[in-house]
Amino acid sequence: MRAATEPGFGLGVLTKAELVQSATRWAQGGVAAVLAEDPDSTDLHLADTLRAGAGLCDVDAVRVLVDEGPGRVNELIALGAMFDRDPDGALQLAREGGHSHARVVHAGGAATGAEIERALVDAVRLTAAAVLEHWFALDLIVEGGRCRGVVALDPSGARQEVRAAHTLLASGGAGQLFSVTTNPGQSTGDGLAMAVRAGVAVADVEFMQFHPTALHHPQMPRPLLSEALRGHGALLRDATGQRFVDELAPRDVVAKAMTARMLEQGVDHLWLDATGLESFDERFPTIAAEVRAIGLDPASDWLPIAPAAHYLSGGVVTDLCGATTLRGLWACGEVACTGVHGANRLASNSLLEGMVFAPRVVEAIEAGREGAQPTGAMRAVVEAERAGGKRTRELRLRHDSDIPGRALALPPLPPATGAGDAEKLRDHLQRTMTAGAGVLRDAESLDATADAVAGVAASATHPEVRNLAEAGWALVHAARAREESRGAHSRRDFPNTSPEFLVRLVAL
Q1: Could you say which of 57, 112, 366, 498 would form a disulfide bridge with 107 (CB–CB 3.0 to 4.6 Å)?
Q2: Are residues 31 and 66 in the same domain?
Q3: Of 265, 276, 250, whose CA–CA distance to 341 is shortest?
């Protein structure tokens, strides 16, 4: 990536908080990448990712991820990121749920995201032409069928137009849709909501992944007890102390098993037994500090845990270079649907996805790319053109790709007709989403949740609450339309996987 000071390539970063307050810093486990062959391989990493994705991963997207990932990790190291190493200087590798081999590099035991963020923020400070902190992006500017930037609120609250030849959404997920989440307060689905309002295609938004082992404690976001703990031998126990699930199963399997056991036993949390792990404080200093701060000793106490909203596997549909269905608009990271995660993200593939696909966006823009190609998740959606080269916003779904697209009818969100209390509306929305559209769902709960979201929207004038309602509206309608259980989406009334739904639900 060229420096922003070079001719013809100016770069600005707009963020609603400070640059260091991103979801990246909360990622604990690490980055999954095959940095040493034999016994591991990129083919095995690919197979593990496809298995976790429950049939909805785009194979080409996953191949890009696993093949380019090791090089991107080494680039990050060159930028100054410091990963944990053994006494001989070799990178320490951990194994997490769903992985067949130890291939996860980490920093500070369980502070990988914070270290990656530190290295990237330092690099951005040196290269960005402008860093606009405490600016809130309200909507995309669309002119002539192209994105021309965003309308935003500046730190004083005044509306401003921030215009750009190319706009990259890297706004993260929507974990704040739920009352229990590992996501920071900024994860309110802003990028997803702006895209929906602009008619940009979004897909796979029903697949909200719940991390099974969040610390059961009033603190929010919930401290995450990294999957690496289970990779090193920590055990899951129910209210009676019995083991009940394979600790290294994919997250959706573990979260569903935990939720079912909690309902069966009438409890609001279960236990993670890490008492058998040696040198806990030295290997996991961040987690050790968090649990000791609430009076628990991981060497002798079982740790209370419950599932928490963690990662949105779907989002704004992109091709393999990050292009969306709106020219001039690009997306990467959790806000994007690249096709990598399918119905359920494999542990520690999230940081890797950002590290691989963000540079592909920059390379495509530098190469003069215009418009999306039918690659990755975009294979389910193609743009139609009228004779004479006039481009339209008309989209059609492909049915000749490996994972065909199916149109998702997404009614407009009701407009705000009143001005309710933002905090109360947000709390009501989060509680309703958790109860009706959480780990376990059914038609009745989803219909009730849709009604509640519409009610919140009717009183939501605050932009963050409005965006949460927009994101929740899309998630609930997608979950209602998918009449099966697959990956992170579990329907009590449709408990089995159906071949009829081996499709990508695309809201246009």
Answers
A1: 112
A2: yes
A3: 250
